Amino acid sequence: MTAAISLRDVRKTFGDFTALKAVSFDIADNEFFTLLGPSGCGKTTLLRLIAGFEGTTGGTIHLYGQEIEGLPPDRRPVNTVFQNYALFPHMTVQENIAFGLQMLKWPRADIAARVAEMVAMVRLGDFVHRKPAQMSGGQQQRVALARAMAPRPKVLLLDEPLSALDLKLRQEMRSELKRLQRETGITFIFVTHDQEEALSMSDRIAVMSAGEVQQIGRPSEIYEHPANRFVADFIGETNLIDATVEAVEGQIVTCRLPDGETVHALANRAASKGQSGTLSIRPERLTITRDPPPGESLKGVLGASTYLGTDTHYEVRLGPNLSLTARMQNAEDAALRLDEGDPVHVSIVAGAARFLVT
Amino acid sequence: MTFDVRRYRGFFGLTMLCLFILYVPLLVVMVYSFNDSRSITNWEGVSLRWYVDVFTGPESEKFKQAAWNSLTIALSAAIVSTTIATAAAIGMVRGGAFRGKSATFALISLPIMVPEIVTAVATLIFFSTIAFPLGTLSILVAHIVFCIPFAYLPISARLQGIEASYEEAAQDLYAGRWATFRHVLFPIMGPGIMSGFLLAFIISLDDFIITNFVKGAGVETLPTAIFGSVKQGIQPNIMALSTLLLLFSIALVTLSYFIGKRGEALQPDRGD
Questions:
Q1: Which end of chain B is more exposed for a tag (fewer CB within 10 A), N or C?
Q2: Are A311 and A330 in contact (CB under 8 A)?
Q3: Rounded to two decimals, what is the model's pTM?
């Protein structure tokens, strides 16, 4: 099976600024693939290179086996949903959706049928004769999707398409996008800086930072097994603690924390005794109890707590140099009734700690 | 404390003075164009005789020919200069950064700054150096040249306000360069191009100094024809003709205002 998109050593510089440093990976056919990273990490640049709005400085891009470098955007069978939608303001919804088909010189009857199909797909039946300015942000978003999908692109590029919508609409559109991708079988490349968006929709995610890919994997892989400190920190919340390796037993290492306690953790790659690195523990994988639990636990004093409805965040001071954030579900009415200053025990859910070799 | 222009001391008086100096002469011309007298100062009742005179009187043939020249020259000059200005605006605004961009902008807008009499003399010298015959064609060429910056300014201002993503979206949807311009950029730029066109048209229609230098013998535009008549003493028919020209200009400005309004309505709204 040929990859939908195959990137090999793709580089891009703007003057002195390096936007992408030798990026190489494949995106599979039918995949919902997300480029995730903070602003300036190169994700939008990569999308624009695939669309053809910018030329590469080096490397090759293949689309289903065909080299596309040098082809202008109008000769690449990919379409883009722009961050600001870029709907043509002088055209109606119908005319916007038909535009690509007209440019491809489809027969008139086929265009009409396809536009009707797209309008039904994004549920915009009542709006076909409206101009973009007469529609809400969410509706404009659907038009932009329909317009980009109408010409049956081989790959659909989405540049932070949900960032202009309010929270509720954004959540609706997430499942809508996922549904559209499943129904059409088109390869989606989705750019976002929102990790929740990335985790909830993607088949695979490429986490990017400073023009480089930090990790590629399924959402659970990225979250459970971050490749490095950046990924652990950027995706979700975590406790990051400097630690050194005391003992190694296969993939499991015993690490020593700043105040002398030891914790068992799964190393991200082969580690050796004395090596320093970062221990990452997700707040929801920590359990706070008044009495010492069976097995490994750390003693501490409860600090400030933040009530968040479904759960509560607790800060636990373990020693002069170390405190952890734990997240406990408010599953029971009485919850824990813990007060600041209470002595507590913190235990790590088995197998949840990660040691990231520096 | 906020600045409220209505409560500013002396504002009312100054405004009235400016309005008086600007508009009373125009008002006098308009009112006296309806005077039923050969004299331009004595009021002898309302009449349309000078309007009739403009179209049928002894000078009517001269005026008709001059009006025809003015309109055809203004129309052609506006079309050509707007086309050139549109191409220049796209090159300047969308062409990326290139060496000498500021210098290019200065060269495009310089004709607005150069005293018109200097341009007039220089153009005349240029035409005689290359032995270009003076007449309608020489007026047209001169007008096209000095209309370009006037057309350029509103067009490039409009283009700067248009996000590049519209053109990218068009190209992404399989439109080539020309199709992108024709179906997307041109319609969105339309109001700016129309403003540029109307401005160029008015500037050409109104021009006296350069026209007078390069028109050659026997060819007249309305401004030079009116000046020629006034030299033999101001007749009431000139007032009627001036009033007609004024109304024509107001009509054009109103048209351009409403076109601008329509353009604003087309600006996309992010919605909520």
A1: N
A2: yes
A3: 0.81
